[in-house]
Amino acid sequence: MFRRSPPDPAAQDLIALGIIRKAHGVRGEASVEPWTDSPLRFSELDRVFLVSPDESQRREVHVASARLHGSRVLVAFEEISTPEELRPLHDWSIEVPLAEARSLEEGEYFVHDLAGLRVIDDASGREMGVVSAVTEGGSGYLLTVQPREGRPFDMPFADSFLRGIDLEARTMRVDLPAGLEDLESIPAVEEEAERGRSGVAAPAERRNASEPLATPRFRFDLVTIFPRLFDPLLAEGILARAIRSGVLDIRVHDLRDYAADRHRSTDDEAYGGGAGMVMLAEPVFRCVEAIMAERREGERPRVVLMSPQGRLLDQKLASELSVCGWLVILCGRYEGFDERVREALVDLELSVGDFVVAGGEIPAMLVVEAVGRLVDGVVGDRNSVEADSFYSGLLDHPHYTRPAELRGMKVPEVLLSGHAERIRRWRREQSLRATMEKRPDLLASARLDEEAEEMLRAIRGERGEGERG
Question: Strand 140-146 vs strand 277-279: parallel, antiparallel, or unpaired?
Fold first, then answer.
């Protein structure tokens, strides 16, 4: 629940329980997004206050009934009997006096009580900072902690870290994993302050790059309502190194920053009814338009929508995308985006497989990894990229390293011989064998020269199979 300061000293201090998203049905019920983890609380209410988004208006009403409807609560007010009466109240919050807030169980806290707490390291007694903000993420609440000096950092509000809260002393004792305070200083996940948004981007300072490029060779813009999901991807590995060296420019845009209301709404119920929420089109249009405004003459990014209905990502498509120079990737949630996003903005729908996941973020990470590593300069050894599985349409050959014998298993003698030509032929033959055994469908479109065709005929002869069809 969220607490609102009274607009004048004489007014009551209120706490918000939810927000009216739309009218429902013909009887003037309100479809309410609950801001309390006890949605049935609405059925216990009598008098409530409806507060306008700009907090300039306040209306006292009485609750006639409340019932659950999927993730929403349908609330009827005695003073409102038609959808027409309710429509002007879209995005108004439902609030009650703070004194009427429900009693909390042990270990429960109101969101507004967490802001301003001093965070204390339980082991050393050191004050780490003050909670400056509380935000709700995909897996719970995140507390933003502002130290006396330095950059703020986020920590999950989780029992595994929490050692105790004293509201009277305004303290919170925690036991955080080593390095969590410094996570925000990783160059690959620094925010571009000059953008005025919460997008993650290649750092301007590039402190770890000896010779950063003046212009990145490839740019990704990732649009999501969960930007922090991309932090691990951009903090470690070849992508992080490519960002620091200036080869890649990867920016993550929080779609909520482009919402039209102060509640940062990015979804709503579907027209025509049915379960599940639909992502609003307008925030996506605003975000993509802001990205497009940065393009130089002659530039035009390809806008990609992660969708189970899209073209299946394979190595051939990844190679095609790696030369376009700029991708904007839209990551949906719930039932997906309003169809008008696809109609007006999207150049390509992409799928990473015939299965269901919670959102487009993890599939988008696969796209960034598959496409990004094909950009010149991302992988140090270009031969390593070209030798990868699927690059030539075949699976890769086996790889070995030290020791030469491990628990009775020996490295093939040819790899120890030092004979470069024999090793090359052995690896190519093993690649063909692996493809025939694991993915024979790939052979139909693989690029095979005369040597490979001859090897394939010999392998098929061993297996008693006929010629390649």
Answer: unpaired
Distance CA(309)–CA(331), nearest Å, equals 14
Q: Is 387 left (phi over 0), alpha (psi -120 to 50) or beta?
A: alpha
Based on its alpha-carbon atoms, the radius of gyration of the chain, rounded to whole angstroms, reads 28
Grouping H, G, I as helix, E, B as strand and the rest as coil, residue 417 is coil
Query: Where do we find the tokens 């003037």?
Result: 28
Q: Is 246 helix (H, G, I), strand (E, B) or coil?
A: coil
Q: Which of 402, 388, 390, 378 is nearest to 445 (CA)?
A: 390
Q: The sheet that has 118-121: what strands, in order across it? A: 153-156, 140-146, 127-137, 118-121, 171-174, 162-166
15, 30 Cβ separation under 8 angstroms: no
Give the pLDDT confidence of 159-179 residue by residue, as tens digits. Answer: 777 888 998 899 999 988 765
Q: Helix, strand, or coil here: 139?
A: coil
CA-nearest of 304, 307, 332 to 225 is 332
Contact 258, 293 (CB under 8 A): no
Tell which residue, 296, 322, 295, 321, has the closest CA to residue 377. Answer: 322
Q: What are phi and psi of 237, to 5 degrees?
A: 85, -165
Any idea which of 213-217, 302-306, 459-463 has the lowest mean pLDDT?
213-217
The confidence band for 133, taking pLDDT boundaries of 50, 70 and 90, is: confident
Partners of 23 in beta bridges: 30
List, in sequence order, every beta strand (DSSP E) within 299-432.
302-312, 326-330, 348-351, 405-406, 409-410
For residue 5, how many C-alpha atoms fall within 13 Å in the half-sphere facing its CB?
3
DSSP string, 324-358: S-EEEEE--BTT-B-HHHHHHH-SEEEES-SS--S
Percent of the chain with pLDDT over 70: 82
Lookup: tokens for 103: 């009693």
How far from the centroid of its chain's Cα atoms is residue 465's Cα? 48
Active-site residue numbers?
308, 335, 373, 388
Distance from C-alpha of 349 to C-alpha of 330, rounded to nearest angstrom: 10
